[in-house]
Every structure is written in C-alpha cells, then in structure tokens.
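User: Study the shape:
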Amino acid sequence: MPTSRRTLTILAAVGAVALAGVAAITVIALTGAAPPEPPGAGTRVVASELSKATDAATRATPGTPEHAAARYLSEQPTAVWLTPEADPIGVVADRIAQLAEEARAQSARVAVVVYGLPERDCGGLSAGGLDDDAYLEWTQEIGDALRAAADTSPIVILEPDGLALAPECGNVAERVEQLGAAARAIAADTTWIYVDGGHSGWLPADEMAGLISQVDRATGDGGRGIRGFVTNVSNFMPTDDEVAYARDVAGHLDGLHAIIDTSRNGAGSNGEWCNPPERLVGEPSGTLGDDVIDTNLWVKPPGESDGECNGGPAAGQWWPAAAIELTRNVVRED
C-alpha cells in the first residue's frame, strides 16, 4: 500500500524541535564535531536574495498582486539553478560562495540545481549546455566551490530530465558517462547529490531504477557518490503519487534515497508539463521525510516559465501571471 502524505508530514508539535535540530546540526558542522547529516524532515535551504522572485518583488509596485506574489515566493526556501548561461566557468564559484554566505546567515543549507549538460533537453525548450570538456571543467569548479562551503552541507540536484529523457534521446550510455563524471567532480563527504529520477507519470519504476543504478556505478571510487535521486522536478504530479513512485524506484536500488519536488504540485497534474493553467504551490521545503524519502524541496522556482507555451515567456524567465496564479491560495494582496 502506498505511503500516504499524512504519514510523512511533520506534526506541528514537533516542527519546532525538528527546526532546532537543524540549527544544532549547523553548529556541529561548523565546529567539525560530527559528520554532516543527510537532508531530512525539517531541512531548511537558503532563500536567496538573488532570486528572480526577489528581483520581481523589488520591481513590482507595492500593493499589487504582482508584488504580493513575488514577495511571498522570494521568502520561500528554494533550490538555486546554476546554468552555464547565467553562471559560466570563472563565475559559478563566486555565485556559490555568495549562496553559502546567505545560507550561513539564515542557518540554512545551500541547495543548487546543476543544469548544463551537453545537448541539454535534447534540443527542447530548455536546449543548451556545454560541450564535454567545458562541462567537466564547469562541474569541477562547482565541486571545488561546494567543498569550500562544506559547513553548509550542500544539496545538489544533478541535471533534471537528463537521465529520464535519455532513452527517448537515444543517448543512455553517453548520459550515464557524463553524469557519472559530473558526480565524481562534485562529490564530497559534505555534499549530498541526487540525480534525475523522472516522475510517476513517466518511466516505469524498474526502468528508472536501472538508469539510476548505471549512474551510481559510474561514480566509481572518486568520492562518496550519489545519495539518491529526485522526482517531479518542474512537474506537477501529486505528492502521494510521487512518494509511492519514489519508494518503488528505491526498492529496485541498494540503499539510495529520494527527494521530491513539491514546488508546484499543490493542485496535482492536468496531464500537461509546460505551464499548465490553474496549478498551485505545494508543500513547503522540508515538510516531509521518512526512511526512503529524505525530504521534499522546492526545486523548480515557482513563477519561472517552463517555456513558450500556454502564453508563457522563454524558459526560466519570470512570469508574473504564473506567480499570481500559483500563490492564489496562500497570498492576499499587500
């Protein structure tokens, strides 16, 4: 029987204790008194002041729906996407250092999405990425910067869609090699890496697990390797479905754990993946966790477009109308 969301959601009575535990973990990590803890229920990741939501809130007129939605989203702990277009070689390390300073100030963890794979998105709406040599250099710089920020116990989401899309793209062997090399470049005892795990409406669990297992083996002996996989990135599948799917995938693997993206799944899925209308934000980051599901995070920043579909701007651009719609159940005008 699939685990229900209720068994995973932290009770309000213990929420404060869990958050206090996170603060204690941060202190321990800073003093070097104990090894870092993996992500879990109560994990808080940084809400970066350099986000597009923060920028939108600054630009919007106070008292408007645009301002209220952007301000709310800017305050939510959300993973930060690193792309070679925005954070190229020679720049990305400084970006991570800035995130680490913000994380320390918030007693939070750095959480980044590494998104620069060669032939990214198979030429789809998020096409781009680096060539193989540049990608290895870029991920090595990311790994070095995260190791310098070891006290923030960083969380890395490695190349959403990169693995689940590989069978369709016909490049599984190439993708496994690229992701294995990236994981080796980034790996550290203080860094928690999760590779792409698709979602419950995509590949069958045994097929997805087979792909993840190949990447796990490809990480070799160069580091601690991957912690596990992440599901539902930039998608809308209900949390209960994702919990059941992640547990099914993990059942085919040896000790790997999962993270679920709940940034935009509050209304579930209507079957569309690109800017579907009438969606809602989901459970806040860090509200779930058990023996298989490490926790949930907001991975896809709500308010950023999936691409030029359903009236949206280019992929990754801020879209005020989407931000307002996604937050309509949690935000009132200023």
The chain has one domain: 5-326. The first strand starts at residue 80 and ends at 82. The mean pLDDT is 89. Strands lie at 80-82, 111-114, 155-158, 192-196, 228-231, 257-261, 293-297.
